[in-house]
Each structure stands twice: as C-alpha cells, then as structure tokens.
Design goal:
heterodimer; A: 382 residues; alpha/beta; 7-stranded mixed β-sheet; 6-stranded mixed β-sheet; 12 helices; globular; B: 176 residues; alpha+beta; 9-stranded antiparallel β-sheet; 13 strands
Chain lengths: 382, 176
C-alpha cells in the first residue's frame, strides 16, 4: 500500500475537496490561491523535504495574514510526499495539477522535477523554485521552470575554482547515480576549465544504507579534496568514515546536502566546505533572513531557520510576489495558471538582500553562490 | 582617412588594454594551500609539529598530510608562519626539477620564468609567487608564498633543509 502524506496550510477539508475524485481544471476559486508541492517527507531526504515545505508555509502564512485585513488573497500549499522518488514525484505533480493548483512550487527532487516538465508545460503551468540546481531543468526544454536559486553550473564553477585556488589537484567526485547527464556535464566543464581531471568519480544511490565501499575507494585514491553533489545522508556517512580514517584532505559539498548536513557535521565536529545558494542563515544584515526567522516563528515556535528552510521561504515569497502582480494586472479577475506563469516570467523582485529577477527567456532568477566552511570544531567560518 | 586611422588607433589601444587586463586575470594566484588561507594562524593546520624555526619564521608539518602532489610523490609539506600568519608553503619532492615543473604547470600553466633548472610562476600583478629549484640530487623544492604577507622574508629565505617525515621532529604539537 502506498503511503502518502498530505499537508495543507489551510483547513483539512480543503484536502478532501481537492482529491474527491472530481477533476478541477479551472484555477482556484475565490480569494484563495493554491500551490502544489511534491516533497520528500519520508525516507532518507525527509528532513530536507520538510525544511523546504516549512519555508514555503512560513512565507504563505505571513502573506495570508498580511492580506487578511486588506482583502488580499489567502495562499495555500498542498504538499504530497514522494519519499525522494522520481516516479512518485511525477505522479504527485499529475495529481496536483488535476486537483487544480495554480502552480507547482518547491519540488525537492531535481530529477523528478525534470520528469514533470512535459506535464507542467502541457498544462501551461509554472514550476517554481525547485530546490535543486539540476541543470536538466535549466535547458530550453524546461522553459516553464522558474528558478529562485543558482544552478549547479555556477555551484560547480565555484567548487572548481576553490580547488585550483588552494593548490589541490587530486580530486574525487561523488554524485547521484540517477542525476541528470546535464549535471555531470556541468561538473566536467567546471573542472576542465581549471585543468583538473578527477582521480575518482563515483556514483551513489541516494537511499543506500552503506557507503563504506565508496569511502574506501576515496581513501585509497589519496585525494586533496572530495567534491560531493549528493544528499545529506551519503555525504555525512562518507565524511564520517573518512574523517575517522584521518583523511588529510578537504570535503566540499554542494547545496543539495542542505541544513541537515550542516547539523550532522556540527554535532560530530567534522569539517567541510559547503556551497550556499541563499544568504547565510546567521546573517544579521540580510532582510530576507530576518523576515524568514520572524515568519517561521509566527508559524510555529518549533521551526528553526536554516539554509534549507530559507531556500523554501524564498520560493514561497517569490510565488506570493508573482501571484500578487498577476492579480494586480488582472484587476481582481480569477487567477489563471497561464497568467501566473506570465507574471513570473516578468517578475523582478528584491526580497530583502536577495534578488530574484526573471525576464523573457531568462528563467534563472538568481546567480547567488557563496561558500561556508564548517571547521573541525563545528564552527561556521569563512 | 583620418577617421579610419583614429578608429584603428583606438582599436589598437583597446586591444593592448585588453591584453593587459587579460594578463591580470590570468596571473598566477593561490589563496592558500590545501584549504589553509594565507594569513591564517597555526590553529588552522590542526594536529601538527614544528619542523623548522628560522628567525621569526616557524614552519610546521601536519600530522596527516597527502604526500602526493598530482602524481608526484612528496617528502614533505611545510606550512611557514610569520607572527602566526601563514605566508609560505614548501613542497619537497624526490624528482627532478623538470618533472616537478611538468606537474605544476598542468594546473598553473608554463612558468613565467625559467632559468636552467629554476622556474617561477607569478608576475608583478600576482598576489602569489611560486619558485621551484633543485635542492639536491633529484630533489626539488617548490616554495609558494603570498606577496601580501612578508614577501621580503619569503624571498630572503634560503631553501629549507629537506623535510623529515612527520612525527620524527616532534617539538611542539597542536591538536584539534
């Protein structure tokens, strides 16, 4: 039996009406704007999926509260669990579209999002803020996909430059077995640009239970740096094994490992460089960070701000901005999927120290890439 | 005609400026070595031992170090600090200078200067300089240093005595 989590920010009855078996093809009625999300709420990436969802929910709740007194729209999120599976992600998105959501937001499986593109495009919908740098989503065929974070091309370029800037030449690369060929090409290009050829390139299963063999291969290769573009579970396991074996080199993880990896490393006092595609959660000067912290706290005091919730929050805020702009242009007419998509395509907004700017033919809304170092004392440095 | 000459002059000037700019962009640069940035303190090395003390300069070896640079084996990797700021790294390799030059230029291009067996990378605009020289029969030392932190000290320093394997010179230990 398939297990499915359904989460809505509004009343539970909404969920019942959405999946009552009656196809709802029109956009959402009245003053409610419904977005759909498929996320890993169970399985190895559950923490990542929940963080993205919570960030979006915080943005929606704040926007709904702000609009309550002025007659503005209420924003709702319908989240279905895909357990990190590409096929379940595609199935969920299909159901969400049938259910009448205005757009899809915050998918947490990049390869799953790529698989959804034909369906999304056929329905003239926008796929907004997928929490992945997947380059397969950033090609011409995926022009209905709007990104609020940088792609892996920029992340990998930053990683490769770091390798060269610190005199490292023996490099290992760990990637997901089911990753898009476009991601592999992006890493190959980035390393080629700095004349580095990986000594070891290893594909891993994102849900595997053991990574000991991978760790052993990497140790035997006597590397200066291991580049990891995988989810937090494998990344943390490989770092743990190699650190215990006194591996003398560095680890550099892509943003996909997220806050979950940061928490694991800090707890074990293990060090790593991490790519960040959103401002640092400990930034005192970034308005979007401050607002996210406030909005999360208003949603639930148990929610904590981290790099992954912030990524979800930015996707949620962008969805809100696009919907408001579309409503304004439509003079209060019901929001259609195509109008929301058009609104996104022209959206240029500053969320408070983080700009999201789309333009005709430009669906990559942010180029922001930073790095953060977690030292062996579990401190965030650099 | 005058206009054509003027345009040609402007284009030439732009080309020359472009070349200068490109030279600046492609200038040899390192921000540190193996994750330790220029200017960081000894603490950044983790567990390490003192390898040499030369005046105000103290050089350390890490307890755990990758003893390969590319495919070239290393005898020693030393991190040298002046007033607790990393300013120089030396690599000792049991290979000929020619072999080590070939290894280093794979990433950083051909040397900016090559005289006999000595080679160097870095131009006037570079913030980092690397100097490679023979220090014995088939033993080569590569000295990489920041030109922003005590460049004079690095330039004046004679090649360090050949590195001993980590652990054999334990004078002072810092663990983390």
């Amino acid at each position: 039996m398939k297990r499915r989590h359904l989460v809505v920010s509004g009343p539970a009855t909404l969920a019942a009406s959405m999946f009552s078996g009656l196809p709802i093809r029109a956009a959402t009625p009245g003053n409610v704007i419904k977005f759909g999300q498929s996320a890993a709420l169970s399985g190895a990436q559950a923490s990542y999926g929940r963080d993205i969802r919570d960030g979006i929910l915080a943005a929606f709740a704040a926007a709904s509260a702000a609009g309550a007194s002025t007659g503005g729209p209420r924003f709702e999120l319908v989240t279905l669990d895909d357990a990190g599976s590409k096929d379940r992600c595609a199935e969920n998105v299909s159901n969400l579209i049938e259910g009448g959501v205005s757009a899809i937001v915050g998918l947490t499986n990049g390869i799953g999002a790529e698989a959804c593109m034909p369906l999304v495009n056929n329905n003239q919908m926008a796929l907004l803020g997928t929490a992945s740098g997947n380059m397969g989503l950033r090609t011409g065929a995926a022009n209905g996909s709007f990104h609020v974070r940088a792609g892996y091309d920029l992340e990998y370029k930053r990683m490769a430059n770091y390798v060269k800037d610190f005199g490292m030449s023996r490099i290992g690369y760990v990637y997901l077995r089911d990753t898009s060929p476009a991601n592999l090409a992006a890493m190959a290009q980035a390393l080629n640009n700095v004349s580095v050829t990986p000594i070891e390139s290893i594909a891993v299963d994102r849900n595997a239970s053991s990574f000991a063999e991978v760790g052993n291969k990497l140790l035997a290769a006597k590397l200066d740096c291991v580049l990891l573009s995988v989810n937090s579970g494998p990344t943390a396991a490989i770092i743990d094994q190699m650190s215990q074996a006194h591996y003398p080199g560095l680890f550099y993880a892509s943003s996909y490992a997220g806050q979950d990896l940061m928490n694991a490393l800090v707890a074990k006092k293990q060090s790593c460089i991490m790519s960040m595609v959103v401002p640092r959660p400990n930034s005192g000067s970034s308005n979007v960070v401050t607002r996210c912290r406030q909005d999360l706290a208003a949603l639930s005091p148990e929610l904590k701000l981290g790099m992954t919730t912030l990524e979800g929050y930015i996707a949620g805020r962008t969805a809100v901005e696009a919907a408001r702009a579309a409503l304004k242009v439509g003079n209060g007419e019901r929001l259609s999927r195509s109008r929301l998509k058009e609104s996104l395509a022209a959206l240029r907004t500053d969320l408070g120290g983080y700009r999201v700017e789309f333009a005709p033919g430009v669906t990559q809304g942010s180029q922001y890439v930073d790095l953060i170092a977690i030292d062996r004392y579990g401190r965030l440095v650099g | 005609m005058k206009t054509m000459v003027g345009i040609a002059c402007k284009l030439s000037a732009a080309f020359v400026l472009g070349l200068v700019a490109a030279g600046g962009v492609n200038a040899f640069e390192l921000r540190g070595f193996r994750g330790v940035s220029w200017g960081e303190g000894v603490e950044a090395l983790g567990a390490s031992t003192v390898a040499q003390v030369v005046g105000e300069v103290t050089c350390y070896q890490r307890e755990h170090e990758n003893m390969l640079y590319g495919n070239t084996p290393l005898n020693g990797v030393r991190y040298c600090f002046h007033k607790d700021r990393l300013f120089m790294v030396t690599l000792d390799a049991p290979v000929t200078p020619k072999a080590f030059v070939a290894e280093f230029q794979r990433l950083y291009g051909r040397p900016d200067s090559l005289r006999g067996e000595a080679a160097s990378w870095g131009t006037k605009v570079s913030g980092t300089r690397a100097e490679l020289a023979s220090v014995g029969h088939d033993v080569t030392q590569l000295k990489i240093y920041s030109k922003k932190i005590e460049p004079g000290v690095a330039q004046r320093m004679k090649p360090l005595p050949l590195a001993e394997p980590p652990g054999s010179v334990a004078v002072r230990s810092r663990s983390g």
